[in-house]
Amino acid sequence: MLTYEENVKQFINRHQLIGQGDKVAVGVSGGPDSLSLLSYLANKRKEWQIEVFALHLDHMFRGEESYRELKFVEQFCQSRDIPFYAERIQIEKQMKETGGSLQEVSRRVRYRFFERGLEHFSADKLALAHHGDDQVETVTMQLVKGAGSRTGIPVRRPLGKWEVVRPLLYVNKEMIEEYCLHYELDPRRDPSNEKPIYTRNRFRSELLPFFKQENRKVHEHFQRFSEELSEDNQFLEDLTREKLHNIWQKDDSGCSLKVEAFRSMPLPLQKRAIHLILNYLYKGKNPFSFVHIQQILHLLMEDKSSWKLDLPHGLKVCREYQFCIFTFNIPDKKEYVFKLDEGDRITWPYGGQFALADQLPEATAAYEYMILNDKVKRPLYIRTRRTGDKIQPKGMEGSKKLKDLFIDEKVVPAKRDQWPIVTDSEGKLLWVPGLKRSRHEETSSAGNHLILIYIRNHF
């Protein structure tokens, strides 16, 4: 079995975690894991031509005891000529001020501290001391809890303009303790790591010994599993992004997805697509679960032309014919009525203008127009739809409900309350621009007919 130093060196080389000339800051608590990593990298400074720095954060949970740990790490660094940067931050005070759980606040404060430390030393990378046993615990916890991600602790990941690397993922706790004993590091011990009130500690004390009894190299198998799964996931995620590129659109209020194109994707890509969309909308905060993804997938597979689903933090997911809409902003219905007479020009709130003229406009895709017959009573009105609206379509007998027209033309519900409706002074519906003209349109442009012009911006 390889030693701690041999394993760490091979792992760093295999993943190219640290190279010549790198400036590496190490997050150091004073415990065996981080102290061994700091010692190892400091011993490699000359051979690898790297610079090594130490970052220590005192969370101030244990008063004088945690302060003594800070001083211990400081003295450890002084004795080995390792530049040292530390801060003391009251996590409990931060929790009261900002809210959030102990784990959430501690992690946020810790990584902000790391960023300040990296900036202080002009470092390139942050090395953290998560090891093989941590990997076994993490993967097992993710599987038991049903977490969305089950790939464990990543070997590397971005942190702003820096990179986080974890060189110890191929060594276990026994190797770390042997290294500390061999080099007489005398690490500090945090008693909270033994308390069974924490989930990870229960996994560590109850499951991990069983796994190790079955296989001494279980940490290596879990690490390989994590790496292989991460590689597979990255490939499938890249493929999903490629497939999504042409079937969804993003804007400030949310996004829309083409349903039929989405349904043609393989199921593994569909799941990842929904996850990517939700992750984008929630900006990585992930208040959603596997259940929410399954709900959306189930509804997208149904033949219903419309439905709505409420997700955490006010996100609405709704099917509107050929589109699935994701939005935090459901616009309120805004009614409007504009009066229009000869020579007038009014601006429609949702883009475009209406005018009454006595001459046809130049032929262009930017215009729609309707020649009004002499029986139309002026002034005209441009307004929002109303309950019971009907139109007498040109070339058809009888009338048609506006509601049915919208359904037949597959106008999504969100646009129906915005769509401009043109009536005469008696309320007769003359025109639904972009959809249907009424029998009140003149068939010929000969004579002195008024021309209703819609200068459209979109539809």
UniProtKB/TrEMBL annotation:
HAMAP family in UniProt: tRNA_Ile_lys_synt
Q: Where is the Lysidine-tRNA(Ile) synthetase C-terminal domain?
A: 380-452
Q: Which CDD domains match?
A: TilS_N
Keywords, ordered alphabetically: ATP-binding, Cytoplasm, Ligase, Nucleotide-binding, tRNA processing
Q: Which InterPro entries match?
A: Lysidine-tRNA-synth_C, Rossmann-like_a/b/a_fold, TilS/TtcA_N, tRNA_Ile_lys_synt, tRNA_Ile_lys_synt_N, tRNA_Ile_lys_synt_subst-bd
Q: Which domain of life is it from?
A: Bacteria
Point out the gene that encodes the protein.
tilS
Biological role: Ligates lysine onto the cytidine present at position 34 of the AUA codon-specific tRNA(Ile) that contains the anticodon CAU, in an ATP-dependent manner. Cytidine is converted to lysidine, thus changing the amino acid specificity of the tRNA from methionine to isoleucine.
NCBIfam families cross-referenced by the UniProt entry: lysidine_TilS_C, lysidine_TilS_N
UniProt protein name: tRNA(Ile)-lysidine synthase
Domain comment, in the record's words? The N-terminal region contains the highly conserved SGGXDS motif, predicted to be a P-loop motif involved in ATP binding.
**Reactions catalysed according to its record:** cytidine(34) in tRNA(Ile2) + L-lysine + ATP = lysidine(34) in tRNA(Ile2) + AMP + diphosphate + H(+)
Instruction: Write out the transmembrane intervals.
Output: none
What family is this protein classified in? Answer: Belongs to the tRNA(Ile)-lysidine synthase family.
Per UniProt, subcellular location reads as: Cytoplasm
Q: Which SUPFAM superfamilies match?
A: Adenine nucleotide alpha hydrolases-like, MesJ substrate recognition domain-like, PheT/TilS domain
Report residues binding ATP.
Answer: 29-34
EC number(s) on record?
A: 6.3.4.19
Pfam families linked to this entry? ATP_bind_3 (PF01171), TilS (PF09179), TilS_C (PF11734)
